[in-house]
Design brief:
single chain, mainly alpha, 4 helices, 2 domains, flat
Length: 87
């Protein structure tokens, strides 16, 4: 959290003063996790990056993408009234 940051730039010029005070208060009183938690989270992310990728990752991605595209085509054809699920 940066105490020098002005919240007004994020909210725009025509924000009511009451809403601006609430936004500043929420920014100021935002809870921050304990340092031990943040350190453990960082170490866990560092370990996760060190794991090798699956051997067939590109094949899995291509299979999922083609299955999704096929389902979209079936849904579009059915919505148009001439697909396998058209009523």
């Amino acid at each position: 959290m940066n105490p020098d940051r002005d919240i007004r730039a994020d909210l725009g010029p025509d924000v009511p003063e009451a809403l601006l005070r609430v936004a500043e208060r929420l920014e100021r009183e935002r809870p921050v996790p304990r340092a031990a938690f943040r350190g453990e989270l960082g170490r866990r992310f560092a370990r996760a990056d060190a794991r090798p990728r699956p051997a067939r990752l590109r094949t899995l991605i291509a299979g999922c993408a083609s299955a999704g595209f096929t389902l979209l085509l079936i849904g579009a054809a059915s919505a148009a009234g001439w697909g396998p699920l058209a009523a």
